[in-house]
Amino acid sequence: MITLHQARTLVAAAEAKADDLGIAVNIAILDGGGHLKAFSRMDGAVLGSIDVATRKATTAVLFNTRSEAIWEYCKPGAPAPGLELTNGGLAPFGGGIPLHDSRTNLVGAVGVSGGTVAQDVEIASAAVAAFIAKQETT
Amino acid sequence: MITLHQARTLVAAAEAKADDLGIAVNIAILDGGGHLKAFSRMDGAVLGSIDVATRKATTAVLFNTRSEAIWEYCKPGAPAPGLELTNGGLAPFGGGIPLHDSRTNLVGAVGVSGGTVAQDVEIASAAVAAFIAKQETT
Amino acid sequence: MITLHQARTLVAAAEAKADDLGIAVNIAILDGGGHLKAFSRMDGAVLGSIDVATRKATTAVLFNTRSEAIWEYCKPGAPAPGLELTNGGLAPFGGGIPLHDSRTNLVGAVGVSGGTVAQDVEIASAAVAAFIAKQETT
Amino acid sequence: MITLHQARTLVAAAEAKADDLGIAVNIAILDGGGHLKAFSRMDGAVLGSIDVATRKATTAVLFNTRSEAIWEYCKPGAPAPGLELTNGGLAPFGGGIPLHDSRTNLVGAVGVSGGTVAQDVEIASAAVAAFIAKQETT
Fold first, then answer.
1. Domain A4-137: which topology?
2. At B86, is the secondary structure helix, strand, or coil?
3. Is D13 exposed, middle or buried (0-12, 13-18, 19+ CB in 10 A)?
4. Mutating which of C85, C103, C107 best tests the D interface, going by the most D Cβ atoms within 10 A?
5. Rounded to an integer, what distance in angstroms lies between the CA atom of residue D124 and that of residue D68?
6. What is the mean pLDDT for each group of 10 consecutive residues in chain A (138 residues)?
7. Which end of chain A is more exposed for a tag (fewer CB within 10 A), N or C?
């Protein structure tokens, strides 16, 4: 399972990237069971993104995949219409990324919301990169 | 109504087919009132499929039809837009199949989720085939 | 995390004890994140016990304690009135027991409902005893 | 409104006090509208306290009072039985404290859960003391 120390590494890297981009986002870190481990709302981030960030991370944990991958299953013409309505509502767009330990076990997820989807993905990716970098040095 | 013995026949056949396909799925067996009778999450099946498998089976019981048949009523241009939002949320795609006794009474449903929709349907169908085969020999 | 094989050991032991007592119960097995792993409703068990069994197990996972221990915090005169209303509703009475691995990590819980509370506790305890016995021999 | 910097001061002070007490807790910081600003689950804190910590803080914001004060309104014989069932469920016991700016405007709340109620109150109080100390020096 993810530690609070790891969660803070993720949050700090996400905030640094958001600062680089000049935007304010919400960042949710969940453990491998989908339970909240850490959360940070940067000053100025919109309130509606609290739920979106958390839901993106939940989507990533529940299906062990990047949140946008769900869209391939439920978009018009895809085989699972309405999949996004399951599990209390998924967020089938970018910004949620699962986290794995060195043995590829699912240990959590990060969810980012507040910028454009492309910015949210860039920020979440920066967080995951920092998480992996720390893993490799330990 | 379905018995626990019958529910186990369904689960075992579903698991055997999933093993054949080399995938891990969630299998939910409901009775004719839509209440959970048996459930099995194979090791490695994603967490998000717990709800999806159960919801497919619920959809099958509620409308006494295969879950994907609901899509014909609520897809774009169909006469009942939003039908999938009723009953707490339906799963209008393949993997849920109703179960009937020898007099065609609805006695339950099986719901499978964790593979592609086509795989889920194949697994649920194998479960129903085993259920029917047992019925005919008794 | 708990395996499906372990979950079945728990279910089988619970059913055997319920048979001994001459009653029918619902048995829910959750993983350490509170997600359903296996479920069995014995023939004749009341429908209302499906939710109660699951909720007892959820209570045991969420607070890493036997479900009845929650009552000490929320009973009249206790320091946390209303605690039972949190987390979507707890079941602060006997029948939910957490499961730990050999290193005392929380790996899941069993919840039993359908008999008297004393019977439910006896059945859940028999399940846990079988779970531990298998652990020791492996 | 509370800033992320202030939220971190609160979280750090709460964690330091929890460390002193040798326990692990969940800490939720909300803004004056009851929306999540920051959250931290210390390693080892029980999962059920995520919701309890958040709910205590919500209770403190919603009624601009310490969470335990709600109990005086809804306890047996008090004039508002069932008040604890409003607003999606309150937590009418200690551990939630509202936060005010230097002009006594409500700007947020801290909620702590994971120890005994007395410990949770002690930790939340330490967080508020650190929040006020910073306010006075600025």
1. Beta-Lactamase (3.30.450)
2. coil
3. buried
4. C85
5. 13
6. 96 98 98 98 97 98 98 95 96 98 95 98 98 82
7. C
Query: Hey, are the CB atoms on C42 and B3 less than 8 Å from each other?
Result: no
Distance (Å) from the alpha carbon of C72 to chain D's nearest alpha carbon: 11
Look at residue D137 in the predicted model and tell me its pLDDT: 67
Q: Give per-residue pLDDT as tens, B118-128.
A: 999 999 999 99
A35 with D42: Cβ contact below 8 A:
no
**Å from D121 to nearest chain C CA?**
12
Q: Which tens digit of pLDDT belongs to each residue from C48-86?
A: 999 999 999 999 999 999 999 999 999 999 999 999 999
Q: Which CATH class is domain C4-113?
A: alpha beta
CA distance D52 to C86: 6
Selection from C21, C1, C33, C32 nearest residue C112 by Cα:
C21
Q: What does the angle CA D109 – CA A49 – CA A89 come to, to the nearest 5 degrees? A: 110
Q: Which CATH number fits domain B27-136: 3.30.450.20, 3.40.1190.20, 3.30.450.150, 2.60.120.10?
A: 3.30.450.150
Chain D interface, mutation test: which of A1, A43, A47, A55, most D Cβ atoms within 10 Å?
Answer: A43
Q: Cβ of A4 and D33 within 8 Å?
A: no
Residue among A33, A37, A50 minimizing CB distance to D36? A50
